[in-house]
Design a protein that fits this description.
Strand order of the largest sheet: 3-8-9-10-11-20-17-16-15
Radius of gyration: 27 Å
Number of helices: 18
Shape: globular
Strand content: 15-25%
Number of strands: 38
Structural class: alpha+beta
Helix content: 25-40%
Distance between the termini: 34 Å
Length: 772
């Protein structure tokens, strides 16, 4: 197992330092997972994350006592389509507070960074959960006479970046630079009397117009998504003294407070942005701070009440717990869920390669705006940030995913599909896209569509990788099963499902037996030149099965007849022979192997056609045993496969190891990576969340399986969500279920205890649960 705090001092799980002992049993609820440090940080690699779902901070306190933080935002796209930082702020106290002893704590319950200095000074930093404003407050018996907030920009002049990744907007799919990447400077606002501020205004747009022309969709009606996008912030304070255009000083008696208002507008001129941010500031200032703070705390309190997982090693008769892996895992799960919440309610889906918490990388080109794998969205990476959200009850955080991929991109995808193939009311979802929907130009190539025989992208890496549309429907169907949201079904699921299924039905032809033959196809990025690749075959079987299981009122007779007819044309799941019997296969016929995924196990996750309780369990078990690629970091899903197959011992080892793979260069323990992508790696954390949830709770139809892959020697208390607006709250202690609450009560009959629970326990709760 990797070291958990390499090179960093922290207080966690009984580690002693100047501030004493933190006992995980001395705090209840989420407070037990707070991250506490007893020393300041040298630089941004010692930052803590904060956020409100749209605005994110990387914040740290330096040995000088200064508070420093980067500001990120989910819609601050600069003209090269990079998701850029809004900026950076420093708060300096004078006189400098005493630095020993020192305690910095991330309070998860209210999403607040609290720093206490040796002279009693207390500094708080938080992002309002309901408004686009950041608050810094300084108070104490011997509070500093003055506090100064300073804007620290790095985009100060026009400069050129090297072509540093194969997915830069201005490179081809083999990474060859087409033209330089120029970065425009920010603008510091002048002439303000009682505040300071800055903005970034896109005076040009690299990509969208040219991409659309080359890809043959320039006549699709839409606005340039980059041109004239403007983002920035204003800083105000009590008793302000404006020192210059980039510094403002608070000289308020008894304490200091800075308010940083952050806004993106598109399209907007600088004057329009200034007018808007002024109105925003005035509107927020009319609400008393105490009232807004109460609402902020109320939002986070409701968030943490949706679900939880508290695990610990069972205490044997000797009276000592066997290690802290279970408790440590619980903390990492909680911290990842916090990071997701800090970035999950914005205008765009979470970026897998760093989210809005990137910082300058040591030894890498670029700055805080750089991230490996560039500005685009890969579906196979993006989805892993979202598969845990239904079980945790965080349905609101699915909205950015559905809004972009369905509301905004389905019309474009239908337009593109008709233009390329002539198919009516059909759509395919490409694997790699820019946020406005065009395929990566790096993958599509630079020959215009009209001059090609094949309108699809040139890059073979995901040319026929079309499982993304099916997974999108699958996630939406899961959300519908959980919430019963009829608007989601009628406005998003059914239109998307109809278009995506019709694409496959139109693109592929049937053989003499009347079955569709999926060729050419590919099994993710790993197997090229396939026939009947598993991901799409499994996805279509699973999606159509769920569609046919919808309530009668949900779909028309014609829709059901089509789904049933289409299901009859689908080929069976591909299999292969192994020394241990028949196993799921990546495809009926595989071609060249080019990556390190296990696509055969897509029948296990995400589509759960093969699982621990199903009759075909051995197909999945054999595929898991004979999988070619074995690792559990980054986007690898081995941990989830193990949980779905009920392999508790294997799953435990995998998730504990995954939870220990944080970035050795980052102080915060849940900043994963870089793995295959970037820091913090949201694929790594997303898989961790989903795997641990699946160890505790799985659903299939009406059935709810409790503790399907949980180790018998770990105690746990959890609250998770299941379909039909169901909540399952369970306490498992010393090998026995001591509490099991299912709401609504009528769902209790659908609960199945897996063999982990003893027969006596099942008998004790007879009538509440069913023994499996």
């Amino acid at each position: 197992m990797r070291a958990r705090s390499a090179g960093w001092r922290s207080i966690a799980w009984g580690e002693r330092n100047r501030s004493g002992m933190i006992d995980m049993n001395s705090r209840s609820g989420v407070e037990r997972y707070n991250v506490v440090w007893d020393s300041p940080s040298e630089d941004c690699h010692g930052s803590m994350p904060l956020g409100n779902g749209d605005i994110g901070l990387n914040a740290w306190i330096e040995p000088s006592g200064d508070l420093v933080f980067y500001i990120g935002k989910t819609d601050s796209w600069e003209d090269n389509a990079r998701l850029a930082k809004v900026g950076k702020v420093r708060v300096k106290l004078d006189p400098v507070p005493v630095m020993t002893p020192f305690r910095q704590e991330l309070s998860l319950a209210d999403a607040t960074l609290v720093a206490r200095y040796g002279d009693g000074t207390c500094l708080r930093l938080w992002v309002d959960a309901n408004h686009p404003v950041i608050h810094v407050s300084v108070e104490g018996e011997r509070v500093a006479t003055t506090a100064t907030a300073a804007i620290e920009l790095w985009r100060t002049d026009l400069y050129t970046l090297p072509s540093i990744t194969q997915t830069d907007v201005t490179a081809d799919y083999e990474g060859r630079a087409i033209r330089p990447i120029t970065v425009e400077p920010d603008t510091v606002i002048t002439g303000l009397s009682d505040r300071i501020g800055w903005y970034h205004h896109n005076i040009k747009s690299e990509g969208p117009v040219e991409h659309a022309r080359i890809q043959g969709v320039s006549d699709f009606p839409r606005q340039d998504p980059l041109l004239h996008r403007t983002f920035g912030a204003l800083i105000s304070c009590d008793s302000p003294k404006r020192l210059d255009d980039t510094r403002i000083q608070s000289g308020a008696a008894g304490g200091h407070r800075f308010d940083i208002y952050v806004l993106t507008r598109h399209p907007a001129t600088p004057a329009e942005w200034l007018e808007s941010v002024g109105k925003l500031t005035a509107a927020i200032e009319r609400i008393p701070l105490a009232e807004r703070r109460q609402a902020h705390e109320r939002w986070w309190r409701e968030f943490w009440s949706r679900s939880w997982i508290h695990a610990s090693a069972a205490v044997p008769a000797s009276g000592t717990a066997a290690g802290d892996d279970a408790a440590y895992l619980s903390q990492m799960v909680c911290l990842q869920r916090f990071i997701t919440a800090c970035a999950g309610r914005g205008a765009f889906p979470i970026k897998f390669n760093g989210s809005i918490f990137t910082v300058p990388a040591a030894g890498q080109p670029g700055d805080a705006d750089y991230r490996n794998w560039g500005p685009g969205y890969w579906w196979q990476n993006t989805r892993l940030c979202y598969y845990s959200l239904c079980a945790s009850g965080d349905y609101d955080m699915l909205e950015p995913l559905f809004r972009m991929y369905v509301d905004e991109l389905l019309p474009l995808n239908k337009f593109r599909t008709k233009r390329y193939f002539g198919f009516e009311n059909a759509a395919y979802y490409a694997e790699g896209i820019m946020f406005w929907g065009d395929v990566f130009q790096t993958a599509y190539g630079w020959t215009p569509m009209e001059q090609r025989n094949d309108p699809l992208q040139e890059s073979p890496w995901h040319k026929y990788e079309w499982v993304g549309g099916l997974e999108l429907i699958w996630i939406m169907l899961e959300a519908y099963e959980h919430t019963g949201d009829d608007a989601l079904l009628q406005k998003r699921i059914l239109p998307a499902a109809d278009a995506i299924i019709r694409f496959f039905d139109s693109y592929y032809k049937t053989n003499e037996q009347g079955q569709l033959v999926f060729h050419p196809s590919q099994a993710l990025e790993t197997w090229w030149g396939c026939t009947n690749a598993m991901p799409e075959i499994a996805g279509l079987h699973a999606v159509v099965e769920k569609l046919l299981a919808l309530p009668e009122r949900a779909a028309t007779v014609a829709q059901r007849a089509y789904w049933k007819s289409f299901a009859g044309r689908l080929p069976t799941l591909p299999t292969r022979d192994t020394p241990d019997g028949t196993a799921l296969a990546a495809a009926a016929v595989v071609g060249d192997r080019c990556n390190a995924e296990n696509p055969e196990l897509y029948a296990v996750f995400p589509f759960r056609l093969c699982a621990f309780e199903k009759a075909n369990r051995d197909l999945g078990m054999c595929a898991l045993k004979h999988r070619l690629n074995r690792f559990n970091n980054g986007w690898s899903q081995d941990d989830i496969f193990m949980a779905y197959m009920g392999r508790a011992d294997d799953a435990v080892k995998a998730v504990v190891d995954r939870a220990s793979h944080h970035d050795p260069g980052s102080r915060f323990p849940a900043f994963w990576g870089p793995n295959f992508d970037w820091v913090p790696d949201q694929d790594h954390g997303g898989v961790l969340l989903k795997a641990v949830q699946a160890m505790l709770l799985q659903s299939d139809g009406d059935k709810i399986f409790v503790l399907p892959a949980w180790p018998g020697n770990w105690d746990v208390e959890f609250k998770l969500r299941a379909p039909r607006n169901t909540t399952v709250e369970c306490s498992y202690q010393n090998g026995r279920i001591v509490k099991l609450t299912v709401l609504p009560k009528e769902r209790a009959k659908d609960v199945v205890l897996v063999p982990l629970a003893s027969k006596s326990v099942a008998q004790e709760v007879k009538g509440v649960v069913h023994e499996y």
